[in-house]
């Protein structure tokens, strides 16, 4: 069974540009979560999508947005990139709210120059 | 505010036992989880405690005391491959999917 997959692995952008990150959850998982992990820090919750709807949002500005498609894959869009947006962006999925187990992808390393 | 506190670094030798503590302060509590992350890799789930007590999974065990808002991860028979960052995480609300993570503990295993 394939795990959570993310693309691209690395992404280099300049300030002011837009970045699009993609995530495919484990088959059968309907929830997708996005986290930001700045260098040497913990994971900060960004967004949660379930059944195509945004269910919860972390303390991030509106230029961080996303969507979930009918096949449960998801996109994270970051507009008007700033230098401090440089981080590892991790996607996770789980099949149910009943557990604390989330399955993570390897992440997209976004570098803003 | 909501926070999880864990030591930033721990060093131990191969074959030893190490304990990584985590204290949490959250508005709600729906279980404590532990994740392992090797440098630049994906966090992987290790253990989950919803009720007080010890959960054992091979060389790894996790403990929870809800009255003390405290838990720990115990790693036995340390191996070099256990060198990684370890994160505790809490789901604070049964209606949201987000996890609140600690800042992570970097474990260095020495020969």
Count of DSSP E strands of chain B? 11
Strand content of chain A: over 45%
Radius of gyration of chain A: 13 Å
* Quaternary structure classification: heterodimer
> Which of globular, elongated, flat, extended, rod-shaped describes the shape of chain A?
globular
Helix content of chain B: under 10%
Kindly estimate the percentage of residues of chain B that lie in beta strands according to DSSP: over 45%
Question: How does the major sheet of chain A shape up?
Answer: 7 strands, mixed
Shape descriptor of chain B = globular
| Terminal-residue CA separation of chain B | 40 Å
Q: What structural class do you assign from the helix and strand content of chain A?
A: mainly beta
Query: What's the rounded overall pLDDT mean of chain A?
Result: 93
Please give the count of helices of chain B: 0
Alpha carbon gyration radius of chain B: 13 Å
Low-confidence stretches of chain A: none
Biggest sheet of chain B, open or closed, and with what strands and sense? 6 strands, mixed
Q: Largest chain interface and its two residue counts?
A: A-B, 30 and 28 residues
Describe the structure in brief.
With 113 residues, chain A is an all-beta fold.
Can you walk me through this structure?
- The complex is a heterodimer of chains A (113) and B (111).
- In chain A, 38% of the residues are buried.
- In chain A, 0% of the residues lie in helices and 50% in strands.
- In chain A, the strands form 2 sheets. In chain A, strands 2, 4, 5, 6, 9, 10 and 11 form a 7-stranded mixed beta sheet that branches. A 4-stranded antiparallel beta sheet of chain A has the order 1-3-8-7, with no helix packed on it.
- Chain A has no helices and 11 strands.
- In chain A, a hairpin with an 8-residue loop joins strand 9 and strand 10.
- With 113 residues, chain A is mostly beta strands.
- In chain B, strand 4 and strand 5 (44-49) form a beta hairpin.
- With 111 residues, chain B is mainly β.
- The radius of gyration of chain B is 13 Å and the shape is globular.
- Chain B contains no helices and 11 strands.
- Chain B starts with a strand and ends with a strand.
- Helices cover 0% and strands 54% of the residues of chain B.
- The model of chain B has no long low-confidence stretch (mean pLDDT 93).
- In chain B, strands 2, 4, 5, 9, 10 and 11 form a 6-stranded mixed beta sheet that branches.
